[in-house]
Amino acid sequence: MIAETVCSAVSAAGLGIAAVTAYRRRFLAATRIAAYSLVPVGLVMTGIVAWVADTAFSPSAWAGFVVLGGAWLLFMITRAVERRGGGTRKERRAARAAQREAVAPAASAPSLGPATRSAARPAGRQAATPRATGSGDDFSDIEAILKKHGI
């Protein structure tokens, strides 16, 4: 009963503000204020306010919300574990087996290895760019790709 009275008072105040706004020749703003002020009365007339009031003071409804929250939390945990772990145990075993079979046991050295790179460089250029073992090796594969494309 109190909720309906409060909603009616809020709507009446909003319609009063809309009337003053329309009097000031701001019709678009007045229409918008009138629309917002009619929402509480509409909620009371549809029964949503009574349902919310009954739900807010019902312990069984709050217990239901707790159960729904727990179910949602379990769903999120299982999704996170599944994404992190890579699926079921059978899927992980199959992925590991496929990964082992993909690489040949006695694979040859890559075509752009250290021996072919030094042979492909001209002698003058090789002497002009000496590299220290620690910092220069980080970009060796990038240099090889750029040289392959003529950059």
Roughly how many Å apart are the termini?
80 Å
Proportion of residues in extended strands: under 5%
Low-confidence stretches: none
Output mean pLDDT.
Answer: 80
The chain-level structural class is mainly alpha
Determine Rg (CA atoms, Å). 36 Å
Q: Based on CA inertia axes, which overall geometry fits?
A: elongated
Helices and strands, in order, run as: HHHHHHHHH
Level of helix content?
A: over 70%
| Biggest beta-sheet profile | none
Number of helices: 9
How many runs of DSSP E, i.e. beta strands? Answer: 0
Brief description of this entry?
By secondary structure, the protein is mainly alpha-helical. Helix content is 78%, strand content 0%.
Secondary structure topology:
Elements: H1 2-23, H2 27-46, H3 48-56, H4 59-85, H5 89-102, H6 114-120, H7 123-128, H8 133-136, H9 140-148
Helix pairs in contact: 1-2
How would you sum up this structure, described in words?
By secondary structure, this protein is mainly α. Helix content is 78%, strand content 0%. The protein is built from nine helices and no strands. Helix 1 (2-23) runs antiparallel to helix 2. The longest helix is centred in the middle third of the chain and has 27 residues, at 59-85. The mean pLDDT is 80.
Task: Kindly list the characteristics that best describe this protein.
151 residues, mainly alpha, 9 helices, 78% helix
